[in-house]
Amino acid sequence: xxxxxxxxxxxxxxxxxxxxxxxxxxxxxxxxxxxxxxxxxxxxxxxxxxxxxxxxxxxxxxxxxxxxxxxxxxxxxxxxxxxxxxxxxxxxxxxxxxxxxxxxxxxxxxxxxxxxxxxxxxxxxxxxxxxxxxxxxxxxxxxxxxxxxxxxxxxxxxxxxxxxxxxxxxxxxxxxxxxxxxxxxxxxxxxxxxxxxxxxxxxxxxxxxxxxxxxxxxxxxxxxxxxxxxxxxxxxxxx
Length: 239
Prior knowledge:
Radius of gyration: 17 Å
CATH class: Alpha Beta
Number of strands: 10
Order of helices and strands: EHEHEHEHHEHHEEEEHHE
Strand content: 15-25%
Helix content: 25-40%
CATH topology: Rossmann fold
Largest sheet: 8 strands, mixed
């Protein structure tokens, strides 16, 4: 399969790329700094690197990059420093998702392209009744109006749910919502429709497990059938 990965030099995106290459897929990446990859990965003949900021690419260039792709994976996120949180682009995840989806539709693929968005458990799933405590509601309200990255995550997921929906002939999507991300090896993990505990007391999720689940969504027809058009929560299994 051919897969485009954006946000591919981030801590989770790099793992997605590595796992896809290990499984023999053709991987395209859009990155600003290819030197974040090891020399070994850059020499991999199955990796095609486009050195650019994704929002600087033209619509035609994006359409060329998603052409013939079986899946597009977005692991984009904001750098968590002052400039990354409050500087531009404030709608990185949303604008990238919108433009990539438009690029897919422009190519009019014969079979639907899978669009997988890495999001966050802090974004509520509108398809489920996800009760939040008053403390959680207050915190999320504060984040929504004071920290642009949280709003960006919300509107990116909203675009898939409301604008793409379930009736597109060209795109099927899944928005993966990890809980607290940690660095750890692949281990048993659980997938749920909604958080099993409050968002302030959830279980940690290894980035390797998030990458593994995304690869499963791409490769495994049954897993994709279970979770397409949904916003699953991923968390490490209880020991």
